[in-house]
């Protein structure tokens, strides 16, 4: 298995632009998580899905952030409009049923820079 | 919800010494405790885990211990090497929660 695949690896965009981050979880994993990591705030859970259904989005910073999982093999995290304070590394992770009982496999992350 | 506290936030040891990182959790329903290692610029990776029906688990130079009564668990690294330098995260979860709650991380530096 190729693991959790994220794209792009790096993204530099101007303030106000729309940014879309992509994630392909490990086949057969029923849970998908989106995290944001910064030096100041550490590792923050933004949202997670179970069987493609959003379960908890309480970590999404504000309405500028949205996430979708249209099928078991693909998820997106969108920021519109982007702001400099959104600069961070965004990780996608997946795990198998039942829930997080078997540990997460993280993707390589997307390093987002908003200028 | 679950709350996980991790100590210390930074730890510096000499090569060959042991390192211990401690975590406490609040939810007695938590039954799974993974540890992740994140090297600089890399993704967090699962290095070892322990379930609530086990008190200790070892894998070569690393070991985890769990005290369910006190709600704390620890990571022990023996004979540390420079390549052990990384940020280590503990986490706790229960089957019903669907997600893990992470500690804030410990930056371990092993000096050659």
Radius of gyration of chain A: 13 Å
Count of DSSP H/I helices of chain B: 0
Can you tell me the overall shape of chain A? globular
Radius of gyration of chain B: 13 Å
Class based on secondary structure composition and strand pairing of chain B: mainly beta
Topology of chain B as a string of helices (H) and strands (E) = EEEEEEEEEEE
Main interface by residue count: A-B, 22 and 22 residues
- List segments of chain A where confidence is low: pLDDT < 50 over at least 5 consecutive residues: none
Strand content of chain B: over 45%
The chain-level mean pLDDT of chain B equals: 94
Q: What is the oligomeric state here?
A: heterodimer
Distance between the termini of chain A: 36 Å
| Overall geometric form of chain B | globular
**Proportion in helices of chain A:** under 10%
- The tally of beta strands of chain B, per DSSP, is 11
* Total DSSP helices of chain A: 0
> Termini separation of chain B (Å)?
41 Å
In sequence order, what are the helices and strands of chain A, one letter per element? EEEEEEEEEEE
Tally of strands of chain A = 11
Mean pLDDT reading of chain A: 93
Percent of sequence in beta strands of chain A: over 45%
Structural write-up:
The complex is a heterodimer of chains A (115) and B (112). Chain A has no helices and eleven strands. With 115 residues, chain A is mainly β. In chain A, the strands form two sheets. In chain A, strands 2, 4, 5, 6, 9, 10 and 11 form a seven-stranded mixed β-sheet that branches. In chain A, a hairpin with a 3-residue loop joins strand 4 and strand 5 (42-50). Chain A is globular, with a radius of gyration of 13 Å. The mean pLDDT of chain A is 93. Chain B has no helices and eleven strands. In chain B, the strands form two sheets. In chain B, strands 2, 4, 5, 9, 10 and 11 form a six-stranded mixed β-sheet that branches. In chain B, strand 7 and strand 8 form a beta hairpin. Chain B is globular. The model of chain B has no long low-confidence stretch (mean pLDDT 94). The chains are: A mainly beta (115), B mainly beta (112). Chain A binds chain B through residues 31, 33, 42-43, 45, 48, 50, 55-56, 91, 98-109, and chain B through 31-32, 34, 36, 42-46, 49, 89, 93-100, 102, 104-105.
């Amino acid at each position: 298995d190729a693991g959790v695949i994220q794209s792009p690896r790096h993204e530099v965009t101007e303030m106000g632009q729309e940014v879309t981050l992509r994630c392909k979880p490990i086949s057969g994993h029923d849970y998908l998580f989106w995290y944001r990591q910064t030096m100041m705030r550490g590792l923050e859970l933004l949202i997670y899905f179970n069987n493609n259904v959003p379960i908890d989005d309480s970590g999404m910073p504000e309405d500028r952030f949205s996430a979708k999982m249209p099928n078991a093999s693909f998820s997106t995290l969108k920021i519109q409009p982007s702001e400099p304070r959104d600069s961070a590394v965004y990780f996608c992770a997946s795990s198998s049923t039942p829930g997080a009982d078997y540990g997460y496999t993280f993707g390589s992350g997307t390093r987002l820079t908003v200028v | 919800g679950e709350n996980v506290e991790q100590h210390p936030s930074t730890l510096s040891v000499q090569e060959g010494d042991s390192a211990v990182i401690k975590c406490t959790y609040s939810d007695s329903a938590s039954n799974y405790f993974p540890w992740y290692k994140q090297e600089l610029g890399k993704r967090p990776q699962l290095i070892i885990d322990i379930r609530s029906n086990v008190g200790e688990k070892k894998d070569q130079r690393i070991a985890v211990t769990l005290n369910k009564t006190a709600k704390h668990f620890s990571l022990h690294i023996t004979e540390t090497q420079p390549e052990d330098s990384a940020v280590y995260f503990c986490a706790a979860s229960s089957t019903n929660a669907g997600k893990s709650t992470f500690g804030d991380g410990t930056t371990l530096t092993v000096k050659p």
